[in-house]
Each structure stands twice: as C-alpha cells, then as structure tokens.
Amino acid sequence: MNHEELNQLLKPKSIAVIGASATPGKIGYTVMENLKESGYKGPVYPINPTAPEILGVKCYPSVSDVPGTIDSAVMCVPVKLVNSMAEECGKKGVKGLIVITSGFSEVGRKDLEDELVAIARKYKMRVLGPNIVGTLSNSDKMNASFAPFLPLDGKATLITQSGALLIAMDAATYTRRVGFDKMVSIGNMCDVDIADIIDWLNDDEKTTCVSLYIEGLKDGRKFIKSGRTSKKPIIALKSGVSAHGAAAAASHTGSLAGAAKVYGSAFKQAGIVQASDLDNLFDRTLALSLMPPLKGENLLIITNGGGVGVLATDAAERYGIPMKFAPKDVQEELKKHMPEFGSAKNPVDMTGMAGTEWYYETVRFAIAHPWVDGLIVLYCETAMTNPLEIAKGIKKALDEAGMKDKPVTVSYVGGEKSAAAMAWLVENGIPAYGAPDLAVNAMAALREYKLLRETAKEPAFKTNEKARKTAMQVISAARADGRNALTEIEAKQVFQAYGLPVTSTELAKTEDEAVTLAKKIGFPVVMKIVSPEILHKSDAGGVKVNIKDEAAAREAFNTIMKNAKAYNADAHIHGIAVQEMAPWGTETILGSVNDPSFGPTMMFGLGGIFVEVLKDVTFRVAPVDKPQALDMFSEIRGAPILAGVRGEAPRDRNAMADTVEKYSSMIVDLEDEISESDANPVLVYEEGKGIKVVDARIILKKK
Ligand code: COA
After folding, report:
1. Is the model's pTM score more than 0.70?
2. pLDDT range class, residue 535, cuts 50, 70, 90
C-alpha cells in the first residue's frame, strides 16, 4: 500500500501545479518551466485563478475544473491557501501533495501542519513536505521542483532535509561527476518521512545507493528499522553535531537534532555508513552507487608512484583497513610487469616507468586472483604516459576479468588530462578520485557497509513481566510520595528486579538498626544518607566507607545524620543505607537517557575522569543484546583497560555485557516511567569474577 501511494506521489503519471504563475521569477513559474524542460511526459495542469495559459499550457482556475485525473499536486501557493487547496485536491481524488510552501512547523505553526495531515488522511492522500524544494527524477524525466535542472544522471538517490542543500548539490553533481537518479526534498516530514522513502527505494530499479542529509529525526526507531531492512547501501551525513549546530538545526527545520554520539550509534545499528562532511558524502556516494561491497580484508594497491602508495597505506590504517603483503604467487606474477627496482609486495609499486600495458596486465591479474578482495589503483601523471589510455587499460582489464563482485577504486594525481581521464572512468562506472586517500576513503565506505550489514540486526527482546511488576510497585510508591527521583535504595530495588548485580543495601532508621544490618551484611560496610533532597551525598558529608566494626558504625550513623541536617535542615531523611563494601575494581558507568528521536538509549563508559573529563562514552539505542554490548566496550578509547593492560588480567566483559542487556530491557520495559538513570560506579572485576553496581540513580518522567 505504502509502495503504491508513494509511486503516485513521487512517480506521478499526471501533475497539477497549484499556484502556477506566468511571472518569471516566481516559484510557480519555475516549477512549470522545470517540468517542461525536464521532458516530463505526463499531462501537467497549471492551476491559477486568472491566467488563461502558462508557458503554452492551458490553465485551470481550480483542480476541480481539470478534466483528467491528477496523481500529484505541487503546491506553490502561500501558506494561508495550502489547506483549503488540499481539501479541493482531496475532493478531486488527487493522490499526493508535494508542498513546497514554507510557514508551517519550522516557524511554530505545527497546527497548520496537523490540519494538512488530517485533510490528507481524510482523502487518503500522502504529503511530501511541507517546506521543500520539490522532487526530481532522471528516470521519470521529472523536475517537479524549483531546483535549476535535473542532476547529472546516476544511480544514487538523495533524500535531504535541507532544500537549499539539494539545490547546491544538484548543480555540483555536474562539476563533481557524481550522478543521482532522484533527489527528494523531505522538509518538515509531516507525513512521508525518510524511512518511508528508504523503504520505497528498495523496489526502485535505478537506485543502487541512498544518500541522506539529516538534521533531526522524529521517529528514530522507524528509521533504524528501515536502515536495517534496506536492500541498498545507505550513507548519511548528519548535521547539527556541535551544540551550536544543534540549535541551528532545530530552528531551521523545526525538528529536534539529537546528540552526535546517539546518531552515530543509531546509524551503526541501522547498518548505515556515515559521511563526515559534504565532500565525503559525494565521494562515498560515488563508490557505494557504483561498486559492490568489499567482502574480505585483502586489499591490494597498485601504483606507479611510491609516495602515493605510502599515502594510501597511511590512509588505510586511519580507516582501520589492515594492509597485508600479497602472497608469494601474486608477487611473482606482478614482478613480470615492473622493473627490477619495483616492489610487488603491497602497495605494488610498478614505478614511474609503468605504462598502459603494465596497468592493464597487473589489474587484470590482480582482480581475478582469489586472494584479492578489492583493488585500489593509483596513478601519478608522467610525461611518458597518457592518463586516458591508462584509464582505458584499467577498464579493459576489469571488463575482461569480469569480477563484478570485487570493488575497485582509482586515484589520479595530475593535471587536466588526469581530470578528464577520471571523468571518463566515472562515466564508465569506475569511481575515481583526485587524491590517494580519497580512493582509500571510498574503499573504506565499501568495507564499512559490508561490516555494518553483518552486525545491524534487531536484538531479540522480551518484556520481563515479573521484574516490571516489582519495579512498578517501587515507582508507584515514589510517585505517591510526590517524587520524581528514586532514592538509592529504591533505584537498587528496580535494578535488582531486572537482575543487575547491585551491592546489598538496606535502610536503617536508627543507630541500633544500622549496627544490626552491618552485622548481617558483614563488616566492612559503607553507610550513606538516604534523602530525596540530598542527591549529591558526598558533598553533604553523607557517605562513610570502610566501616570496620560496631563502634565505627555507631559513630558513622551519628556523624552522617549531623552532616545531613547541617547541609539541608529541611531535607526529608528516610534513614541511612547500610551496604556491603564491594572490593575495588575497574570503575565504569552505565546509564540511560530517553532520546527525543530514538527513545530509551543506553550509555556505557569508563568511570571517574574518563567520563567526567574525557567523555569517553558510547551509546546504543535500546534494546541492546550481548554482542552489541561487547561492541560498545571495544568502541571507547579506554577499551584496552577492559582488555587488560600492563599484565593485568582482562576485565569481566562478559558479565558486564550481560548486565548491559538486562539494563537495556529495563529501560525499554519502563520507557513510560524512566527519564534518566545511572549505575555509577559499576565495578568490573577480573574475568570470571563478575561486576558490582555500587550506586544507583533513577529519575522518573514527569506525569
Ligand atoms: N489557486 C491557485 N493559484 C492561486 C490561488 C488559488 N486559489 N490563489 C492565488 N494563486 C496564485 C497567485 O495568483 C500567484 O500567481 P500569479 O503570479 O499569477 O498571481 C501564485 O498562486 C502564487 O501566489 P503568490 O501570492 O504570488 O505567492 P508567491 O509566489 O510569492 O509565494 C510560495 C508562494 C509558496 C513560493 C511562498 O509562500 C513560499 O512558501 N516560499 C518559500 C518556498 C521555500 O523556500 N520552500 C522551502 C525550500 S527549502
């Protein structure tokens, strides 16, 4: 259903332009002109109350006057007219609305947008936008936008939240030689969103790669699902990653830009390759749209220059691509196509003497060899060689070898002749770049795609009814008490219900009770103040550790009580928590936030200064399974500490991963209740010796 509706919206057989104008310079004129110039084959109906014809096409005062059926209506009337026009479109039986008009949620008029969606639902119409440039498609010869022209024809499809960026990229496709079949401006996404288009493109024959420019998602989970199930590689550029940028993005599109790290993790979980900037988006799109993924880890670099070979090797290391020497038989064959002083190892340096023939021979042999999973071909322009001839040699070798499942990227360093040869290569389906590190970056994207596809799986998730019931009792009691912050004891009860290994903690109301509990738990113990008003317990002198005997326990009880009262005379004191003193281990932190785009999201990091100063933390949208948790541990800069440094035994990552999985089910189960939470510190012991959650904090959502 979704597919057919989007076909009518984005591949319409007939189009009405509402607000078409005969005045050059107006958007309603430009859209008419673009549809004509792009060669759109279906009927176009300009709608204008007074004009008899526009650009030689008969005009109608209203959609209801149009004799034929209309699939899509492009709206170019001011915002105050859009919803009444939408109503008319519904009555006429229009299937899709492409709403260029601005002035909706991006300027605080969400009400108008809600009304538009309600009208669309009533008449079963789909809406693209509002606040967009329009949509363009080479395969449909349709420029239903006010962007200047159809982009350079190619196999990628761009979906962008910034219309201005679409216009800029449209023209740049010609200078950058990166082709697109479609460009879709998605705007405020009041109805059709990025995920819908990703799903729709699964069955689009022409599109081989989806390129995204994202400012902020509304339904992050739907997006992750579409990414996971996409049949095509997706590459995303996310803007608004800096605090300042995030504010700019929010005011620009009216959508919320999330934290960079959460988006980064979500892309990973969705199997989506990332671009670091606009150049990178173009470069990676080119490779992903033309080449298959890099399936193995054996990458061979062939070059006529040692310098560019080393630069490429350096870049490979930066992207985490392991470079290996080629096996003996490969080296022996390659040696036949280079002078004595060349090198057949890897990079394969044929030296500056390499001409078309050597390039042809080495490429043809290498790409067909079973050891080689991917090939990077580098060329420095020399006086004795013809860049275009070399390009043709490379292409001929690849065609003859016929290895369509192995990727090849090329870099030429040189002048105009090299530029022309690279353009020829791209036109002939081989991604080529002006610097060796860019060819490696392109290969890295093809590798990342392959690796991400392997791990981007939906984790199994089952609600833990029993734990949820216990947790809800604790939460309801706190709410009944008028509190949004659980005490440490309550938070630990919730954690414990979900199987988190918390230090045993009990509440003492009197000095004698404290002694009894300390004896029960076993000395040494820790004692902490329990008060909803005192969250920073240490600051209030509310924590005593390493209490070794009864006398010390009595003294600690009285001192903590005195300190707490001095700190905040009005604080409600529930009592003092007496808890087991866990042996010290590697300090880590687990936590959760309710991300505005992605919902319950887990955080993991090393504790202490690692989290406070270095902010060495990583995120995953919950639920998180054990393999994903282990992946989180290897992602942080402090990963070697967990793996065991300086002769220390590795930490118990397995137990930690188990806890992450349980923690993540807790925040999914209690999504409507928990706003934020922390287990900090979580002490991790040697492999096999488990972990301990020493302190706990849960902040509830306000209800
Ligand atoms: N049915 C059809 N057409 C109607 C109409 C109706 N009921 N009522 C008015 N029109 C016509 C107008 O007469 C005019 O045609 P004309 O030139 O022949 O007079 C045409 O619709 C456009 O109306 P106008 O008032 O001239 O608006 P405009 O062209 O100045 O602006 C928008 C209209 C949609 C372009 C403008 O409101 C807007 O939103 N601009 C921002 C677009 C944008 O940047 N989008 C996001 C990109 S990222």
Report:
1. yes
2. confident
